[in-house]
Amino acid sequence: VSLESLLLSYPGGETMAKRTTPKKNPDKKRVVRKKKGLTKRDVLRKCDQLSNWGKWGRNDQLGVLNYITPRDIVDASQLIKRGKVFRLGLNLDEDGPQNGLFGGRWNPMHHMMATGTDAVQGIQEELVGMRYADDFINLPTQAASQWDALSHVFYKDKMWNGYPAKLVDARGAHKNGIEHFADKMVGRGVLLDIARHKKKPRLADGYGITINDLERTAKAQGVEVRRGDFVVINTGQMADCLDRGEWGGYAGGNAPGLAFETVDWIYEKQIAGICSDT
């Protein structure tokens, strides 16, 4: 092991190595420094560096949805050409991806409280010649496709904007509940089909989508990600599971996803929301 490689393994050692290491002999093998892996410290530093807490006031419960303006919504509505509707969510049924291994979640269960069979057999009281059907669904709210509220994740015992985590109790979220998004999530959607751009049916589990991937895909598709946009990323994972008729580790297992470096891209673009098929 060379003196230079030893120095480079310590903080500040790069400068010392430059001062103490003689010129290299071109005939000798080159010493390559191993690239530093991502650490917990790196993640925590980015959490503080890219924080938007307080940006829209101490009482805010919308977060980056504040980037959307009324003008943005009007402009988005004018993009409609064919009026065709695309369903992006999973069915709320028992054939979903949940297997109980992640958070104890189960697939939605549909139950009937009143049926047509009840009606014709006279179990229901007749109301002016009319009877009815009624039902309910039993499910964890994370069971199928969903949009996470700002009360979903805690950082240092706090949730979005510094609200204490204890404000989410047995009765639900007293701050940052999803109900605040109900009339706010309207805007321009931008699909970045990473799998298609890479000419693959799906990205491999564990693949980290880079900033380069995002920008090249957008360029190839002729789209631009702007402030206040909703970015939809397709990896091909969901379609692959549906085509094969099995979910495997979809609910909490390995999956393709955004590489850590993309947090800077997301922050700088000032997007209003981001989601994927994973």
What does this structure look like?
- The chain is of the alpha/beta class and 278 residues long.
- Among the domains are: 1-36, no CATH class; 68-98 and 185-276, no CATH class; 109-138, no CATH class.
- Helix content is 24%, strand content 12%.
- The protein is built from nine helices and nine strands.
- Strands 5-7-9 form a three-stranded parallel sheet. Strands 1-2 form a two-stranded antiparallel ribbon. The chain has a two-stranded antiparallel sheet with strand order 3-4.
- A hairpin with a 2-residue loop joins strand 3 and strand 4.
- The longest helix has 11 residues, at 211-221.
- It is globular.
- The model is unreliable at 1-22 (pLDDT under 50).
Structure at a glance:
It comes from marine metagenome. This protein has helices at residues 3-8, 13-20, 40-49, 70-77, 116-120, 194-197, 211-221, 237-244, 262-269, and strands at 109-114, 134-138, 168-169, 172-173, 189-193, 208-209, 230-234, 257-258, 273-276. The protein has nine helices and nine strands.
List keywords for this structure.
single chain, 278 residues, alpha/beta, 3-stranded parallel β-sheet, two-stranded antiparallel ribbon, globular, disordered N terminus
**Approximately how much helix is present in the residues?**
10-25%
Order of strands across the biggest sheet?
Answer: 5-7-9
The largest sheet, given as strand count, sense and whether it forms a barrel, is: 3 strands, parallel
Average pLDDT value?
89
User: Helices and strands: which structural class?
Assistant: alpha/beta
**SSE series:** HHHHEHEEEEHEHEHEHE
Rg value: 26 Å
Beta-strand residue percentage: 5-15%
Uncertain stretches of 5 or more adjacent residues:
1-22
- For the termini, the CA-CA separation is 44 Å
